[in-house]
Structures are given as C-alpha cells and as structure tokens.
Amino acid sequence: MNGWRRWWEAWTSRAVVPLTPADRERYFRIAGVARTVAIAVLGGAFMWFVRDEPTWFLALTAVIVFPGTVVTWVMIRRSGVLAPHVWLCDLLCLAAFAAVVPELFLVSLLTSLAVLVFCAITLRRTTTFALCLVAVVAMGLAAAAHPTREDVLAASLFPLAIAAVVMPTQLSAHVLQRSIDFNTRIADALNVALFESTGVAGRPTTMHHLYAPTKRRFPTRISEEQWLDILHPDDRPVTDEIDAAVSAGQGYHVRYRQLIERLGEYRWIEEIGHVEVDGDRVIVQGMTRDITDTVVAEQQLQRLDLMADSIEVSVSVLRLVDPDDPTSLTVVKENRKAKEVDGHSHEGMRVIDFNRHAFDTERHRGLGHRMAEVAAGAPAFRIADAHLRLHGEERLFSVVCSPLPDHHCVVVMQDVTDLWHARSELERLAYVDTLTRLPNRTRCRDAIAAAPVGSLLLVVDLDRFTDVNEAFGHTCGDEMIVEVARVLAEAPEGVVVARLGGDEFALLVPPGTGQRDELVARVFQALSLPVQLPNGLMLQASASMGITTKTRPDTPADELLRQADVALRRAKQYRNTHEFYDPRNDTSAPHRMMLLGELRRALTSGELELHHQPAASARTGQICSVESLLVWRHPSLGTLSARELTEMVSLSNLNADIVVHSLREAVRHHTRWQQQGFTVPVSINVEGATLHDQALVDRMIRIITESGLPRHTVGLEIAERQLRLGSPDCRESLRRLTDAGFWLTIDHYGTGKTPFSALRSSYVNAVKLDYVTIGEFVPSDETLFDAMTVVMHRLGLTIAAGGADDERSFGWLVDHGVDQVQGTIVGPLMDVDEMLAFLGSPRPLPVAR
C-alpha cells in the first residue's frame, strides 16, 4: 500500500523539491511562459504539416493540444507549481508529434531535452529519472516509426545528451536543494525570515520572502500596500524611518507590530535591513523575527524596575561570576533605594570592591560568603540584625537573600535601626513597670506561658500596705514598693521577679532552682528585714503569698495567676503566711457549675473526643504505646483540656459513663490503626473510684472481651494518690482487670505513699513517674533515682516517665533506666486522625539507647 502511495506521489505536486517562495514563483512562471509558447508553436507547426488530414483529425488535435495553455496557468495560479504528470503528458505529446510528422522529430527531441532539464531543477531525483526513461523510450518509438538515418542517430544520441545535460543539472539542483533545506532549518531554529525587496527611485515596492520558519507562514511576495494593511496603526511612523534609511542608502533596525492572520493577533516583529543602491535601483535584503516574548519580558522587567524603585527597601541582584570564587560576587542590578544607601551605584562592581568587610566572618557573619553560597544554589537565608557600617555609623539592617537561576541571587535589605530603637523603647514601656523597673504584668504573663512544666508561681502581696499609704502618704508608699522590689530582685538566678500592680509582686521559679519550701522561706526571710526608705523612715514589711505549680505545658498564664490569687486570698486570711493552690478549695471558677450541667449532654452529643499522646521506647526510640485522654470540644468555650475535664468528672456522678465511653473509643481507635498496620497499645486514664465499682469493672471486662483484642493491647492508668492497694475491693478489681488482659499502670508515681512492698503483689504492670517527682531528683539525687529504677525492675515493673519536653530531659531519663518516655519531644497530644498520620510517618528521636 505504501509503495503505491509513493508511486502516486511521485507524479503529483509533492514531487516538487523545496524551493524558496521567490525562486518557486520565478521558476514556474518561466516554465508557464515556455510551455505556452511551445504549445502554440509546436501545435501550430503540427497542424500545418497535417493540414491535409481529415477535419475531424484536425479538430481532435486542436482540442487535445491547445487547451494545455489554459491548464498551465490554472495550475500555476492554484498550486504555484506544475506537477510531474503535466511534463509526462508533454513528453508523450512531443513523441507523438515526432512520430506523426518526421520533420518535427529533431525539434521535439530538443524540446523534450529542455523539459527534462527543467524537471531536473524542480523535481525529485526519482521522478526526474522516470521522466528521462519515458522520454528515451518514447523518442525511440517515434524514431522507429520513420527509421531515417538522421532520426535513428538522434534517438541513439538522446540518452547521451540526457546524461551529459540533465544529470549535471540534477546534481547542481540537489546541491541547491540541500542549501535551501539548510537555510530553512536555520530559519526555523532562529525563528527568522529572510527577505529581499526591490524597487526604483529609492523606494522598495515588493518584498520577496526567501526563507521563513514553518511556525510563521508568510506569503511568497507582499506589496507595500499589503504590508501597510497588516501593520499596527500605532506603528505607522516606522515606515518613515525605513524610507529615510533606504533613501539614504543606509541599513536600518526597527521594531513594529504586525497582524498575523493565522493567529488573529498582533505580534512584535524585529526587522533588520541592508540597503544596496545601484542608480535608480534599490535592493533591500534583511531578516525579520518574532520578538513578542522578548518584548513582553522587557515590559515586565520595566514594570518590575518601576515597582522596585517605588519600594522603600534596598533590592540588589547579584551574580556569582566564578562559582569557585565567592569574591567574584558582582552587582548586576540595583533599585533606587539600594543606590541611596551610600549614595553610589554599584552596578557592574564586585561586592568586595566596595564592601570588603562583607567577607569578614567575625564582624559580619560572613555575609558575602553566605550570599555567594545562595547564588551557587544554597537555600535562602534571613538575618534580622546585620550590623553594617555606613558613613562612619553602625547601622542595623534586615537582610533576606534568595536564589535566582544561573548563579544569581536577590538581596533585600532594610535599615531597621530606627525601628529597632523604637521597638526597644516600646517594649520597655509595654513590659517594664515604670516605678520599680521590674517586668510588669504583661511581661510576667509571657514568662509564665513560656515557663517549663514544674515551674512555681509565687504571688506576694504586702500586708497592711493601705495603712502605710494612709499614715505616711502615697510617696512614702511608692518608696516602700521600690525598696521591696529591690529586695525581691535579689532572688536566685533564673527567677523572674515582676510587679503585677499595686503592692502585688510575682516570682516565677523554674524547675531545679531549689527546694520549694526553702525558696518560700528565703522570700519571707528577705521581707522580714526592716525597710529603710530614702527619707530615713524605717518600716517593717510583711507579706502573704499564694503559690501554684505549672503542671501542664498548655495551661494559660491567666489561669495560673488566678490559681495563685486563689491561694493568696486564703493566705491573706492569716497574714504573713503562704498557701498552696488546691483545686478542691477553688470556688472562683463560675463556669464550673455550668459545665457540670452540660457534661451529660456532651457525652451523648459527641463533644467528648479521645486524644492521644505517644510514648517512645528508650531502647529502640520507636513508638511503643499511646496514652489517651478525653478533651471537650465545647461549642462556645472552645477546647477544654483533659485536666479540666478530669477535675469536672471527679466532681460529677458520671465517672462510670465517662470510663465506658473512653474505653469504647480507645478500642475503636485502636481497631482503626490496626487496619492500617499499626498495633500500638493504647491506655486510658481512670479515677481510683472505678476500682470500687464492681458493676463498672464488669462492663469494662465485657467491652474488652467482646473486642477480641490481644492481651495488653488496652491499658488503664490510675493515679497513685487515688489508689488504695490495701483495700480488698481495690485489689480484687485489679486482679480481675489483669486476668481480663488489661495492662495496668500506676500513674503519677511518687505523688502518693505507696510502699515498694505493696507493689510486689498489686497486679500492676508498670509505674509512670510524675514529672514533678523527677524534677526533685535532677540533678542532685541521681543515685537515689537509679536505685529506685533498679528496685522497680527487680519487681518486674516497666518504668515510664512523662514530661520529656527537650533532648536533655529525654536523654537523662533514658540514661537512668526508664523504659518508656513520654513528652512533647516524642509527640504532642493529638486527635485520632493526627495520630494515624503520626504513626505513618515516624520521626527519629534525638536520643535512644
């Protein structure tokens, strides 16, 4: 099938070799004229020689021969070429003329040779060869019809004439075609069109396109009027520029917009012309190319330049000329503000030439080296406080450096010196008490929020301070406040001392500062000394103190201040004493009663959600268990923490319902994780009262049995202070729960009074050390802590610990025998979906033995 298609295409216009549009037009116009003349002359001669033949023969000959002139111009006008089958018909007709009229043999032979020469120039090699073969055979047959010596000799020499004339012509045409193909490919690659325009009197009239890219279809020739029609109206003045250059015999380089009808849009064109003047004759040769993308990019760059110049920050584009030499970092572009930094433009200069200190590691943190690294492909960096010296003055700059392609980077700098001074002053006014120069209440709240778990908050209130104001005046009272502040400011290093307002102060004591009672005693001892005022008056101060402990990392600062204030109010009843916050004595939470009334509704409406915090194995560093805590997503108050919810449950009669709900949710969540391939045990927290409710224990055993989960998949955590191991009911419940497959853990171990001997036969599997208890061992009593872990392991108990919020605490617990570690460094409290994602993408822990 393909062979027949190739044979058919060899006789169609597809067999015409690629020519430049101008050359194709010229060749085939000449061929059309020559064919018309040949038909007229040879046809007329043939009719003359056969004039004695019958009329019908003459009429038939005229019908066959003379319409060929019309066909010639119709084909040229329609397709621009004469297809090979036309020349095939001509060769056959010439052979027929020679056969019928011997007198026309030599003329027909020479005309056939001329046809073959033209075909050798315009047709492919195979088609030309086929036409040569047809001509030789046809002329041989014509000579055989009248075998005169001259005709036979001419027919015999005809192949030699073809070989001598047609074949070299074919070779030359092939070289020309290769040149045309090469130039066309170059035009395609460069997206340029080559043209030639001729005219007289210094004005070109017609443009002929020699080569054009395939993506841009140009007409073979275009007149000046046609060119003006597709020129953008706003670009008409470019014609005057071209005419002036042509009239002066000079080349030109212009840009204009031209309508591309195929796309239906105007495109930017760049035209470069070379002018040659020969008397009145003008020849312009040149090229055009589509530069729309370039112009759009230039316009975008211009807009970016305007935008960059309009902003009040320094923007510079740098280029790393030599990737192996950081000092080759060169300024390519600067905006207006960058030039105003030191009053000079540095475009084209190396950074080291105008700022040699930029590569000073000690002074400027190696800013030049870091920018060179970014230009070489390193990630972006930001420096908030880079010190640069300008005009002999040290200034503070914010620096942002981001990578750009081709070893470039952009540097954005902003002078923030004045802003920094203003911010420092505002911070001083916003966070410092103007009377005592101590941190004020706002700064204290920030410090409390950032304080680690286990920190103590002491709120101190002077006793009978109102009496001092009334007796000696407010000036004397202020002096007393200042003196008390001076005394409290001598607290141990790390303690934050703040004035909350009036005669109230706060001391925030981080863990590890010392024993709690010792710190309280030192504060009272300092305040017990007589206070001498600047006016010489000697006063005796006394104070009451409320103390609370930060037990959870997410406890709000205002809540801790409220708790300390609750304890302070109790201490003020006795004066010159201190009280620790006790939730059981906290009647100042008005929303508590409201929440207790809504708790049952929350249980049935799905507002109580089980969240999970992972624990890691100290041996492998992998997640080994999950502690699950209920949180309350209140529709108006937001999320209430597990600690708040636990306190409310202890005050309600819903403990059994809460435990059952938590257990069912834990089983459901674990089943979901198990379906995803994660078999991490899960534990829920239960109140100690649970162990004294045998009906509740029955329900718990039934749930775990019906779940079909393996032993120790679900665990229970009971706080030590709520555990009564000496109670028969408690021990029986522990035994039954153990037999049912629960993993039992004593939570917050160290806050109660459970002896080691009671653990031997308590049916528990693990103990979880309280983070406050751990803080009392670190770092002074490590030996005692190690001894305790040895005893626990001898009793067959797994040791877990919470509160590992950083690498130091995590590593300390691992090094001192803890089996499982829990804390924010392992993972925060998260909902079931977040926990599933966390299990699917575990992160390596910084410490694991």
TrEMBL record:
<feature type="domain" description="PAC">
    <location>
        <begin position="250"/>
        <end position="303"/>
    </location>
</feature>
<keyword id="KW-1133">Transmembrane helix</keyword>
<dbReference type="InterPro" id="IPR029787">
    <property type="entry name" value="Nucleotide_cyclase"/>
</dbReference>
<dbReference type="Pfam" id="PF00990">
    <property type="entry name" value="GGDEF"/>
</dbReference>
<dbReference type="InterPro" id="IPR000700">
    <property type="entry name" value="PAS-assoc_C"/>
</dbReference>
<dbReference type="InterPro" id="IPR000160">
    <property type="entry name" value="GGDEF_dom"/>
</dbReference>
<dbReference type="Pfam" id="PF08447">
    <property type="entry name" value="PAS_3"/>
</dbReference>
<dbReference type="InterPro" id="IPR001633">
    <property type="entry name" value="EAL_dom"/>
</dbReference>
<feature type="transmembrane region" description="Helical">
    <location>
        <begin position="32"/>
        <end position="50"/>
    </location>
</feature>
<feature type="transmembrane region" description="Helical">
    <location>
        <begin position="104"/>
        <end position="121"/>
    </location>
</feature>
<feature type="transmembrane region" description="Helical">
    <location>
        <begin position="128"/>
        <end position="146"/>
    </location>
</feature>
<feature type="transmembrane region" description="Helical">
    <location>
        <begin position="81"/>
        <end position="98"/>
    </location>
</feature>
<keyword id="KW-0472">Membrane</keyword>
<feature type="domain" description="EAL">
    <location>
        <begin position="592"/>
        <end position="843"/>
    </location>
</feature>
<feature type="transmembrane region" description="Helical">
    <location>
        <begin position="56"/>
        <end position="74"/>
    </location>
</feature>
<feature type="domain" description="GGDEF">
    <location>
        <begin position="453"/>
        <end position="583"/>
    </location>
</feature>
<dbReference type="InterPro" id="IPR043128">
    <property type="entry name" value="Rev_trsase/Diguanyl_cyclase"/>
</dbReference>
<protein>
    <submittedName>
        <fullName>Unannotated protein</fullName>
    </submittedName>
</protein>
<dbReference type="InterPro" id="IPR035919">
    <property type="entry name" value="EAL_sf"/>
</dbReference>
<keyword id="KW-0812">Transmembrane</keyword>
<dbReference type="InterPro" id="IPR052155">
    <property type="entry name" value="Biofilm_reg_signaling"/>
</dbReference>
<dbReference type="Pfam" id="PF00563">
    <property type="entry name" value="EAL"/>
</dbReference>
<dbReference type="InterPro" id="IPR013655">
    <property type="entry name" value="PAS_fold_3"/>
</dbReference>
<dbReference type="InterPro" id="IPR035965">
    <property type="entry name" value="PAS-like_dom_sf"/>
</dbReference>
